[in-house]
Design goal:
434 residues, UDP-n-acetylglucosamine1-carboxyvinyl-transferase, Chain, four-stranded mixed sheet, 29% helix, globular, binds shikimate-3-phosphate
Length: 434
């Protein structure tokens, strides 16, 4: 696919529902009593894998519309052993969270994933679940994972890495564990699981760096609206920040402070951001975000800020290439374990199109030049966030970007190029059908 430069992006838009919350809504809805009606569901390759997973476990999911689901919960002990492995596809969130949910269930469950998911670290969830009494086997630390449901005991667990997925796995297992389960975080990570469990009636205590959940017999959600995904809005916001004359407003966007770090950092770099109509959506802070292009300067991102924009760092790197001066990102080693080695990819792909980027021991450093990137070839390496990097670099570049493996965006945002084509007319050129 070719992405051509555009003069400016001027648009109002909405993006699909938050992927992290969509996974959680289906998984928690599956173990609720009765029906959960989810609106604003963010349908994508990843979240469809979650729908398929709970269906395989005996849960009925009715698709009322593309973004409206009814999940007919079977209760905390109601999931049934499927007769085939559960395929988590590319979705790390699904594999790690469902491991926690199944650990206290009845039966034997095998979790498999695609090539990328099968090389991502899984001992990080297996280890705390074993401490709770679960039977979890990994394959040399990776998927396939085999879980045999067991009677669980609550634990106090200090996370060795800041990971919302691992925290969530322990909390979900904690629902069925005897006693009170506490997870201590080295840095605050996204708290969607805690918020949803609280909403579903679990006894949850949230503190700045720890969270506690008590054993529960019954959860009930009934209705849930999901706000727009800031990770899916990020490409349009970053493009608007760096393409002169742009003004983009994204409506109904989730603005959880543990997710919205991109906005704070862009603001620090000099971006003009305004937030209107602040309101809660489904128990999450949300609002309409307007971003207008301006001259940017480099910024330093500290390790404790990284979890608040971990998935947006590839896009922040594109903004940093267009800003005046240095941008340094610390404490981002976790990027190596995402859908690809994103640290290596950010450095290599941006260098190929004219960026002055180098890796550091735990992140990257960019020498920004307030001029358009040259352009050239960007390879997504099958990673949706890198495809978005290539697309944004393309619209902001001088010569355009030849984007390889562009369809990787399907993982989180299947309509991405259509939306981009609408708000940046002339930017998106699909390859001729063969
Ligand atoms: C996610 C947590 C983050 C993030 C991922 C989604 C979640 O991963 O990168 O895309 O939904 O909990 P880690 O928990 O591995 O940091």
């Amino acid at each position: 696919m070719r992405i051509e430069p555009v003069p400016a992006l001027v648009a109002h838009l909405a993006v699909p529902g938050d992927k992290s919350i969509s996974h959680r809504a289906v998984l928690i809805g599956a173990v609720c009593e009765g029906e959960t009606r989810i609106s604003g569901f963010g349908r994508s390759g990843d979240t469809e894998a979650t729908m398929a997973a709970v269906r395989a476990l005996g849960v009925e999911v009715v698709e009322e519309d593309i973004d409206v689901l009814r999940v007919l919960g079977v209760g905390l002990q109601g999931l049934r052993q499927p007769d085939a492995p559960i395929d988590c596809g590319n979705a790390g969130t699904l594999m790690r969270l469902i491991a926690g949910l199944l650990a206290g269930g009845e039966g034997r469950f095998e979790l498999i994933g695609d090539e990328s998911l099968s090389v991502r670290p899984m001992e990080r969830v297996a280890e705390p679940l074993r401490r709770m009494g679960a039977h979890v086997e990994t394959t040399d630390g990776h998927a396939p994972l085999v879980i045999e449901g067991a009677v669980l005991q609550a634990i106090d667990y200090e996370l060795p890495v800041a990971s919302a997925q691992v925290k969530s796995a322990v909390l979900l297992a904690g629902l069925c564990a005897e006693g009170v389960t506490t997870v201590v975080e080295p840095m605050p990570t996204r708290d969607h699981t805690e918020r949803l469990l609280e909403r579903a009636g679990a006894r949850v205590t949230r503190r700045p760096t720890s969270v506690t959940v008590e054993q529960t017999t019954r959860l009930e959600l009934s209705e849930l609206e999901i706000p727009g995904d800031i990770s899916s809005a990020a490409p349009f916001l970053v493009a608007a920040a760096i393409v002169p004359g742009s003004a983009v407003t994204v409506h109904g966007l989730g603005l959880n402070p543990r997710r919205a770090g991109l906005l704070s950092i862009l603001e620090r770099m000099g971006a003009k951001i305004a937030i209107y109509n602040r309101r809660p959506i489904g128990g999450e802070p949300a609002g309409d975000v307007e971003l207008r292009a301006s001259e940017l300067v480099g910024a330093t991102v500290s390790a404790d800020e990284v979890p608040t924009l971990v998935d947006e760092l590839p896009l922040l790197a594109v903004a940093a290439c267009h800003a005046r001066g240095d941008t340094v990102v610390h404490g981002a080693s976790e990027l190596r374990y995402k859908e690809s080695d994103r640290l290596e990819a950010i450095v290599e792909e941006l260098r190929r199109i004219g960026g002055h980027v180098r890796s550091t021991s735990d992140g990257f450093r960019i020498k920004g030049v307030p001029a358009r990137l040259r352009g050239g070839v960007v390879d997504s390496r099958g990673d949706h966030r890198l495809a978005m990097l290539g697309a944004v670099a393309g619209v902001a570049s001088r010569e355009g970007v030849e984007l390889r493996d562009a369809e990787a965006v399907e993982t989180s945002f299947p309509g991405f190029y259509d939306v981009l084509g609408q708000i940046a007319p002339g930017a998106v050129h699909y390859p001729a059908a063969s």
